[in-house]
């Protein structure tokens, strides 16, 4: 049985990507949650992940760390699941979009850390964030115009899993996006995997100061 090691569901956007992809594509796996920023994480991650980061996927002796490598591994391991679009051109485009998400959108990621429990309307936005949002809107509109939706390439795939934390941030921070993308945002939020992850995230009680620039702890 595959095992996916993840971080806190409220905060760990990279974990969400791998988890949601597996869940939405009906890939069976066992989940192991290591709470970020705790001595337990420090102690256990050492022997689980060469990068000391989550997510990390274990498949027998095979260890795959990094969300993008996990998506590629799953695509090879489960060729019958449409993790990437079937056409070569579309697949190249989906991979480019995931790579851009993986390496870019620094302003959005830094200014608006994923925080499923919080409501932070008006926080985080600045012109750099807006540039990231404009780029996302162009990318999503182009893909949806071609596929007809509901997901970027029609059915749910790696590319939608990669943008799921962005969709979550749009909600938490009430960030501006063109109205025509509302259906896509809703399709991601309403997916059974995203609902299950968010419900679990709302039940968590951990507070991670590094991910809470707008909700200072009452205890510090
Ligand atoms: N490039 C990695 C990023 C993974 C990452 O940064 N994970 C964070 C949690 S979201 C982590 O493990 N942080 C633990 C730490 O920095 O100690 C990926 O795509 O999986």
Describe the structure in your own words.
- This protein is an alpha+beta fold and 220 residues long.
- It has 2 domains: 2-81, Glutaredoxin, CATH 3.40.30.10; 88-199, Glutathione S-transferase Yfyf (Class Pi), Chain A, domain 2, CATH 1.20.1050.
- 51% of the residues lie in helices and 8% in strands.
- It has 9 helices and 4 strands.
- The protein has a 4-stranded mixed β-sheet with strand order 2-1-3-4, with helices on one face.
- A hairpin with a 2-residue loop joins strand 3 (56-59) and strand 4 (62-65).
- The protein is globular.
- The N and C termini lie far apart (42 Å).
- The mean pLDDT is 97.
- The site of glutathione has 13 residues, from helix 1 and helix 3.
Features:
51% helix; binds glutathione; 9 helices; four-stranded mixed beta sheet; 8% strand; 220 residues; Glutathione S-transferase Yfyf (Class Pi), Chain A, domain 2; 2 domains; Glutaredoxin; alpha+beta
Please write out the topology.
Blueprint (H helix, E strand, L loop, with lengths): L1 E5 L6 H12 L4 E5 L5 H10 L7 E4 L2 E4 L1 H11 L10 H16 L2 H6 L15 H21 L10 H16 L8 H9 L1 H12 L17
Parallel strand pairs: 1-2
Antiparallel strand pairs: 1-3, 3-4
Helix pairs in contact: 1-3, 1-7, 1-9, 4-7
The chain binds glutathione.
The site of glutathione (GSH) has 13 residues, from helix 1 and helix 3.
């Amino acid at each position: 049985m595959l095992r996916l090691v993840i971080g806190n569901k409220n905060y760990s956007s990279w974990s969400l990507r791998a988890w949601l992809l597996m869940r939405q594509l009906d890939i069976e796996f066992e989940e192991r949650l290591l709470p970020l920023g705790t001595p337990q994480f420090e102690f256990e991650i050492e022997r689980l992940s060469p990068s000391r980061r989550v997510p990390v996927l274990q498949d027998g002796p095979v260890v795959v760390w990094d969300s993008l490598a996990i998506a590629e591994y799953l695509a090879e391991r489960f060729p019958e699941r449409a993790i990437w679009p079937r056409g070569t051109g579309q697949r190249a485009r989906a991979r480019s979009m995931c790579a851009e998400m993986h390496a870019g959108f620094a302003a959005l990621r830094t200014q608006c850390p994923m925080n499923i429990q919080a409501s932070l309307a008006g926080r985080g936005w600045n012109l750099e964030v807006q540039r990231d949002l404009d780029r996302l809107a162009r990318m999503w509109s182009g893909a949806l115009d071609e596929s007809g939706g509901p997901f970027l390439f029609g059915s749910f795939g790696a590319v939608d899993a990669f943008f799921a934390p962005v969709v979550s941030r749009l909600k938490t921070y009430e960030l501006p996006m063109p109205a025509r993308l509302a259906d896509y945002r809703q399709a991601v939020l309403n997916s059974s995997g995203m609902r299950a992850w968010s419900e679990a995230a709302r039940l968590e009680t951990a507070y991670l100061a590094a991910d809470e620039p707008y909700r200072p702890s009452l205890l510090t």
